[in-house]
Amino acid sequence: MNNEPFSVVPLKINYKTLEDFKQFREYGLEELYMLEDLEENLIENHLRSPFFGIYDGDRLVARMSLYEIEAPYDRFFQPPQNYYELWKLEVLPDYRNKGLGSKMVQYAKNLNHPIKTNARSRSDQFWLKMGFQPVHYDPNRDRGENPYVWLPEGIELQK
Amino acid sequence: MNNEPFSVVPLKINYKTLEDFKQFREYGLEELYMLEDLEENLIENHLRSPFFGIYDGDRLVARMSLYEIEAPYDRFFQPPQNYYELWKLEVLPDYRNKGLGSKMVQYAKNLNHPIKTNARSRSDQFWLKMGFQPVHYDPNRDRGENPYVWLPEGIELQK
């Protein structure tokens, strides 16, 4: 864990992390699957975690997932390339409006790959502020999502 | 529009419907795309709408989308077949806890195709009550979603 307060760190998938996840609103099959996986493998601090988060002392107070999509599956960016899907960005209620969400998104941008997210629940203004842009909605590809993307220098959207 | 109160009806995509949609929390690029589409085609009561809803008089108070996925893209059901993705199920706050959500899901089930949804925000109990079941989470396919499915008689999940 990093010593600087409220810095973003990769999350180790162990029993404590999975217990911490129960505090978040978006908790479901993905988390249960990670738990099963942990139990079957009997490995602590599993490396396959796509999760990142912020601790206040020992308490996980914010998290997000960055899932890498490989270039052959890229339907958003030009040229097609590996990119991240960002999901489950969530800050616990007591820690909101302190910039922790922005800090996590900034961490993702620093990885310097394009990012795609689904801007849910009227969060468009947040994503615009973070430098994301809406895509042109494609019903077959986007299936009811509200996709916003972040483009590193030199990258464009597919036509 | 159906005369029975609070019955589920297919929504015509016209300027009134798109204005009605603004009352719902999940409003974004999909709705803007439908508006553009309407403006470009200058066609009222557009037929391509995947939306269904419930009216109280003239007021749209609940909605959902049922989007048909074709068999070659089916990664959930055995045998692979056309199925519906159900999303944007939402009842306006004043109309909650009156069974309107259940009524909409029942409408979808009556179409007698398998249904897949993403059970967000700890809604698992609602979907179980409606006869849905969780899938075995597959990170590549499910990408952070929380998929619950409804199986008509004789249909199974893919292994």
Any descriptors?
seven-stranded mixed β-sheet, alpha+beta, 159 residues, 26% helix, two-stranded antiparallel sheet, homodimer
Concise account of the structure shown:
The structure is a homodimer of 159-residue chains. With 159 residues, chain A is α+β, with helices and mostly antiparallel strands.
Write up this protein.
Two copies of one chain form a homodimer. By secondary structure, chain A is of the alpha+beta class. Helix content of chain A is 26%, strand content 27%. The first copy, chain A, has helices spanning 15-21, 29-41, 100-110, 124-129, 139-142, and strands spanning 8-10, 51-56, 59-69, 77-78, 83-91, 115-118, 133-134, 147-150, 156-157. In chain A, the strands form two sheets. A seven-stranded mixed β-sheet of chain A has the order 1-2-3-5-6-8-7, with helices on both faces. A two-stranded antiparallel ribbon of chain A has the order 4-9. The longest helix of chain A has 13 residues, at 29-41. Chain A is globular and about 45 Å long. The A-B interface holds A 25-30, 32-33, 65, 67, 85, 87-88, 119-122, 124, 134-137, 139, 142-147 and B 25-30, 32-33, 65, 67, 85, 87-88, 119-122, 124, 134-137, 139, 142-147.
Instruction: Quote the beta fraction of chain A.
Output: 25-35%
Number of distinct helices of chain A? 5
Total beta-strand segments of chain A: 9
Q: How much helix is in the residues of chain A?
A: 25-40%
Q: H/E element string of chain A?
A: EHHEEEEHEHEHEE
Report on the biggest sheet of chain A: 7 strands, mixed
**Silhouette of chain A:** globular
Cα gyration radius of chain A (Å): 16 Å
Tell me which protein chains meet in the greatest interface and how many residues each side has: A-B, 29 and 29 residues
Straight-line N-to-C gap of chain A: 42 Å
